[in-house]
Specification:
single chain; 85 residues; mainly alpha; 3 helices; 0% strand; elongated
């Protein structure tokens, strides 16, 4: 990616970036990138893969469907004492 120059950084922001770099023992550049990723919601843990192929299903159930699903799971999670003796 193309380099970005920041000018007139407010002193409190500069201190925050410097503190982050010291705490993480990293460069100012990496500290700024981490802070931007965190704030933008794009930060990922090292080695974590982001999947979005099921996003269209999020919040698509009605309340009744969700209750029905939870009930079905509850029934499946019941331990049958005859089987586990």
């Amino acid at each position: 990616m193309k380099a970005i120059t920041l000018r007139n950084l407010p002193p409190e922001v500069a201190r925050l970036v410097q503190r982050r770099a010291r705490e993480k023992r990293t460069s100012i550049n990496k500290a700024i990138i981490e802070l931007l990723e965190e704030r933008s919601g794009t930060a990922r843990k090292r080695g974590q893969t982001l999947y979005d192929d099921l996003d269209h299903l999020a919040s698509s159930w009605t309340r009744e469907e969700a209750v029905s699903f939870d009930q079905a799971l509850k029934e499946q999670r019941t331990i049958d004492p005859d089987v586990w003796e």
